[in-house]
Amino acid sequence: MKIRPWTAVLAVLLLSACSKSPPQALGTLEFDRITMPAPVAERVVDISVREGDTVKAGQPLLKLDPAQTQANLAAAQAQATQQQAALLELQVGPRKEDIAKARADLASAQAQARDARAYYQRLLPLEHDNYVAGSDIDRARAAAGNADGQVAAAKAALDELLNGTRPEQIAQGESALAAAKAQAQAQQVVLTKLDVVAPREARVDSLPYKLGDQAPIGAPLVVLLAGDAPYARIYVQEPMRASVHVGDRMRIHVDGRDQVFEGKVRMIRSEPDFTPYYALIGDDAQRLSYLAEVTLGADAAQLPAGLPIRAELVGGGK
User: Each residue of 269-311: pLDDT tens digit?
Assistant: First the structure.
C-alpha cells in the first residue's frame, strides 16, 4: 500500500503531541547575600569600595565615626577601675586608723554613759524629799539610757571593724567588677565593628548609605554577594514536588542565553511557600509551590543575579 507524504507528517505530529515534556519549574538566579548591619547610629566617615568591586576576606569596606563609642569605652573602663579598687578595699578590710577611731568613740561613749548614770543616781535620793521635780528625774533617767545605747552602738561599730568584711560583700564586689569589665568588653567589641570588613570573599552588591550619612542601628551598611557561581532559586509546583529530591540533576535555561546549564538540587522546602486555606485538597492543591535551590557549576560563574530561569528535571527525578 502506498503511504502518502501528508500521512507521514501527521504521524510525526501525533507522536510529538503524545510525548511528555519534562517537568519544569520557574525561578531566578541568586547569590548568597551577606548583609553588614550598623552596630550603632553613627555617621559614615569613610567608604573604601564601590558597588561591583570584588573584595577578599578581611578587606576594609566602610568606617563609622568612632568618637562616641570611644568615649563610652573610656567611661566603662573607668567604671571597671573603680569597681576594682572597691573590691580591693573590701578584701583588705578596715584600716587600723578606723579601728583606733572606733575604740576612741567607744571610750567616749562609755565616759558619757558613766557621767549620765552618776547624775541620775545623785538625783534619786532627792526625789523623796521633794528637792527635785519628777520631770528632772525622768530626763536624767532617759539621758542615762540614751548614753547606754550610744555605748552599745559604738561597741557594735568596733566589733564590725574587728570582724572584717563579710564574704557576701566581697561576692557583691566581685560581681560588680565582673559586670563593669563585661560592659567595657562590649564597648570594645562595638568599637571594632565600626571598621566594617568583608567576612569572606565576595562582590559588593549595594552601598545604601553615602559618605556623611547616619544609618540607624541594624540598617544594612553593605550588601555582599558571595559564592563562586550563582544558584537557581526555583518554585516547584505541587504536581512536580513528589519527583524532586535533594541531589537530583536539573537543566537550567537562562533567559537570553542559548547555553543550557547543569545543576543539582541542594535544598527543597517541606512546606509550601504559600498555602491558602482552600488549596490543600482537590484541584486547588496544584496551586501550591515549594521553594528549592539548585547549585550550578563554574560555567555559570559569570551569570548575573536576578535573571529569570526555567528548570527541567533530568530523568524525572530519583
Answer: 988 876 554 545 556 666 788 899 999 998 998 888 889 999 9
Count CB neighbours of 132 within 10 A.
16
Q: List C-alpha distances in Å: 160 to 125, 154, 202.
A: 40, 10, 65
The string of DSSP codes covering 77-102 is HHHHHHHHHHHHHHHH---HHHHHHH
Alpha-carbon gap, residue 190 to 291, rounded angstroms? 37
Helices assigned H by DSSP within the chain: 5-18, 67-92, 96-128, 134-163, 167-193, 238-241
pLDDT at residue 186 is higher than 70: yes
Residue 106 has pLDDT above 90, yes or no: no
Confidence at 103, pLDDT banded by 50, 70, 90: confident
Q: Which residues of 163-191 are buried (b: 16+ CB within 10 A; e: fewer)?
A: eebeeeeeeebeebbeebbebbeebeebb
The CA-atom distances, in angstroms, between 194 and each of 35, 102, 223, 226, 274 are 15, 54, 16, 22, 39
Q: Residue ranges of the domains in the chain?
A: 22-65+205-316, 75-185
Q: Which CATH number is 22-65+205-316's, of 2.40.128.590, 2.40.30.170, 3.40.50.2300, 3.30.70.100?
A: 2.40.30.170
Residues 292 and 8: beta-carbon distance below 8 Å:
no
Express each pLDDT in 33-63 by its tens digit.
999 999 999 999 999 999 989 999 999 999 9
Q: Is 288 helix (H, G, I), strand (E, B) or coil?
A: coil
CA-to-CA dists, residue 147 to 12, 111, 120, 121, angstroms: 123, 9, 12, 14
Q: Do residues 234 and 25 touch, judged by C-beta distance below 8 A?
A: yes
This prediction's pTM: 0.64
Looking at residues 215-237, what average pLDDT do you find? 92
